[in-house]
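#struct-pred

JT: dropping the chains for the assembly here, can someone run the whole complex?
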Amino acid sequence: MMLWAILAAMTGAAIFALLWPLSHGRTQGFADVADARSLYRAQLKEIDRDLARNLIGASEAEAARAEAARRLLRAASDEASPAGETEPSLRRRRASSALMLSVVPLLALLVYGLYGSPNLPDQPLTERLAKAGPQQDFAVVLARMEAHLAANPADARGWSLLAPIYLRQGRFDEAAKAFAAAARHSKPDTDLLAGLGEARILEAGGVVTADAREALAEAVKLDPKNARARYYLAMAKEQDGDGDGALSALQQLLADASPDAEWAGAVRARIEKMQGDAGRRAVAALPEGERQQAIKGMVDGLAARLAEGGGTVMEWSRLIRARSVLGEKAAALQAVKTARERLAQDAAALAAIDALADELALKETP
Amino acid sequence: MIVEIGHYALALAFGVSIIQALVPFWGLVRQDRALASVGSSAALIAFALVALSFAALVTAYVRSDFSVGNVVANSHSAQPLIYKLTSVWGNHEGSMLLWVLILTLFGALVAISHNSLPPRLRAGALAAQGLVAVAFLAFTLFTSNPFERLSPAPAEGQDLNPILQDLGLAIHPPLLYIGYVGFSITYAFAVAALIDGRIDAMWARAVRPWTLLAWTFLTLGIAMGSYWAYYELGWGGWWFWDPVENASFMPWIAGTALIHSTVVMEKRDALKVWTILLAILTFSLSLLGTFIVRSGVLTSVHSFASDPARGVFILLILVFFVGGSLALFAWRAPLLRQGGLFAPVSRESALVVNNIFLATACATVFIGTLYPLVLEMLTGAKISVGAPFYNATFIPVMVPLLLILPLGQSLAWKRGDLLGAAQRNAMAFGLAVLAALALIAFTKGGPVLAPLGIGLGLFLVLAAGFDLAERIVPRASGWRAALSRAKGLPRSAWGAALAHAGIGLSIIGIAAQAWSTEAIAVLKPGERLASGRYTIVLESVTPRTGPNFRAEVARFQLFSGGRELAPLEGSKRIYTARNMPTTEAGIRTDGLSQAYVSLGEAQDGGVAVRLYDKPLILLIWIGSIVMAAGGVLSLSDRRFRLAVPKRAAPATAAAQPAE
Amino acid sequence: MSVAQPVRPVPANPLPTKRRMTRKQRRLGLIAAAGAVLCFAAGLVLFAMRDSIVFFYGPTEIAEKGVAPGTRMRLGGLVEAGSVQRGPDQRIGFTVTDGNNAIKVSYKGLLPDLFREGQGVVTEGVFEGAGSFRADSVLAKHDETYMPREVADALKKQGHWQPGGADAPAPAKP
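RK: done, full complex below.
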């Protein structure tokens, strides 16, 4: 309401100021003769000055004076006769007043109505940060934390809180810096070092870089049981080409873990994948006939596992694709059907399966 | 609420500008002074409203109001206050608002310069100016609205492009815009004069101060932009013949020609048709520049994101204003009356020659800028026109002009004495030739053109100085007489001499760049690198944290010919919000020269370093500042003062000669 | 210039009759002077067009058009991931690709801040034939999301263009 009052006042003031000269303006025509005369005088003086300074010859100065005089005469003869306060001039004023009163507010309202957001209040940052409350925007908390740390860069605890948040948000570069800052300003801490290693690896797109390895090694030195550091060190081994070493390191890690450790699943998956990769490499090395056989065996294994229940879209897709590639169309169709039943709750998954079926031209042909 | 008030104010200004374009024009046609005077109040209101709108946007930026989309896209809460301010015009929408602000500011200035303008001319000019304002307000409101809101508001902004977070940017665009938006006033005057059919010495007199004002700011803006590119881009280059640079350079050349041709028009009432055309062309080139920068038609290392809708809109504006005014010109110009006479050898003719050369030089830049675009449209081939093209075209056209410039300066009005003028400049020319020869002998084996360029620059500086001396001390009169003559010499004469000397200084600086040297190496702490006269030793590389960036700062000791200068720091910054690196060059000024260090990547335990020796480079910008100072001095000439009540004291107020 | 009015007698013409020029003569002189300067400039432009203009090509265009070795030009495309090799003395080699064809580029000097693998780049230099290019400058981009327009066009032509980076905010120089 307040806003509209202000906007109305602005409009009123603008129109009032526009109308003002119409009621107070002079009515005579444009008298330019006075200007022409003063210009003429100025030009004569100028010629005299130039003459005194040898900037113009004496006879040329005479000619220039004559030219200036001609111009003055012409200006005087050009002068239009001034219009008085006549009926048409009154009508013109009324018309232009009407134009102002209509065009200005209507256009302003139209344009503002199209693009404006009159219901949205200003939201300066300080105000938003000051607005405390449990349902506070997470990002606002983050912004406040960043502001705090910019002012107190030696606050190790703050950095150690912020770093994992960055990591989760995928801001690996900043996470690494935050972990590093936390580690720098606190006692040697194995978790921070492991976090630093992890952030550096993720920043490098999964490659265990030299500086990441350094941080991880230090973490393990402080606490030989640190699972995260050991996991990534195993990855480093794998990237070095030492697949077996990596595998055994991970198995060792799993053996040391308490069975309810939440990361155990991830490690197990990793081990399985590495074994699978190793198997695949082995399969690739087999002669043609045996390879077909081996692949079929693996696909059947997958099918058997999926048949027991569960299975993600990825796994189902893999199975369908494998069946189709192996030329087992009936089995592929069957897999599509089962997958659709299992994944019936998940619309996106269904769409993915259907798309795959289309792609592979798997249709229920009678 | 402030944001919404600002938004509404802009919409209201749109309506008011329509009134400004229509009613005074009607008054002009009907000889009704009351209607015509609406122009002045409309211009003032439009300015007040746009200023309010701009203030609202500034407030949003300063308070980091992330419910405004434009603030989110171009600012960050951690930015220092100064860059929150400059972020306002560091982006397309905000800079459009600044554009419109300056446009309406000029309208308001014309409105209050009450007594120095013939009323008919003022009414017509305000109407034309109003029309330009309508077009650009519409463009801003409909395609580039800076007040678009976001709900819910994001927690943090995306930060301003780091290379724009710099003090140079704080000043560069406003200066540049005052320059080329200022030419809208000369355009408006030209259109008004064509409509009214009265184009005479009075017109030239009214237009000159505005042209000077715009030209002065454009000079400063271009110089500032060039210095900004020099230290911020880290390449040591100061002019790239980039389309965007050319876009501001072309109006500058045309504006320079306009300043000179209005002198002839005021003095002799001659050259009218050409002057009017030039006034139209100058602003048309400004519009073309806006189109080039904002539509994305030309590839440039620094253009705004292209948006077809914006490009088409600006193209329409361009076609309307350029086409419309040229059509008006074609229709009305033949009605102009011829003015006074002057001999082939005279100051007037020299100014005509100046105009011919400047117009040609402008045309070569125009061709170089637009040819690639036309070629791509016609054949699909992509080409780039760079420095070699302009070196082969622009410079050969400018050199003869600069060579005869001092001659023209010493010629008398109406009919001059060429031999006398040549004699008067013989001493300056002789000294300059001697200096050039000495340089060639001294730097044998070096570039030959550079000493010649320095000779040319020196010639201009000396000739300007000697010309002033000649006027103050004609033939061995006493110093007392000289002092009073110096006082009596109009400011515009001082201004002209200063501007011409400024060009000379810039040319010396530019020519001296032929001797600049460059060396690259990977340095570890303690290692040294030499280039030209300078040697640096890397002291240390340390990390540093700024408000919204992190930096690796390399510190160098700097030596020149055995003496140690103040140390020098170069850095590589990473701006966290955009994760974007920038190079901050380390620059140490040594007299008029500079040692310039820029950092590359860290490698092999060292850091890649590029060191330049830039001899006399500061002269390039000092020359520009001297030119602008010449403009200011001319502008302060008593005749030009705005709002001098002319009728009250016509004799004193209008008594100063122009040159 | 353009005056439609008839020539009017000038009162008190101060110029000696010998040197007197009619308006027509003056105008002709002016036009001749302007014409001479313009011809001079036109000559310069034509000359410069032949020698100092550089064409822009993508790797595929070079392969298809049979560009002669020794041609000076601009080359644009993406820096192939993993192709950047750094030698001693600031020597750098990398491969510019548009997905279908690739050209090996050698360059000596500092790379601009935003030179990255997998990103767009424009280089200027000399094509040496046999798929290799000696660059003397690698052009800076002003923004991490900004794709040089020539590169974008070249990639679009080769069908390797994913918009997304293209409409991100580009930097401003007003």
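JT: nice. The interface with chain A takes residues 10-14 of chain C (CB under 8 Å). Chain C has a mean pLDDT of 71.
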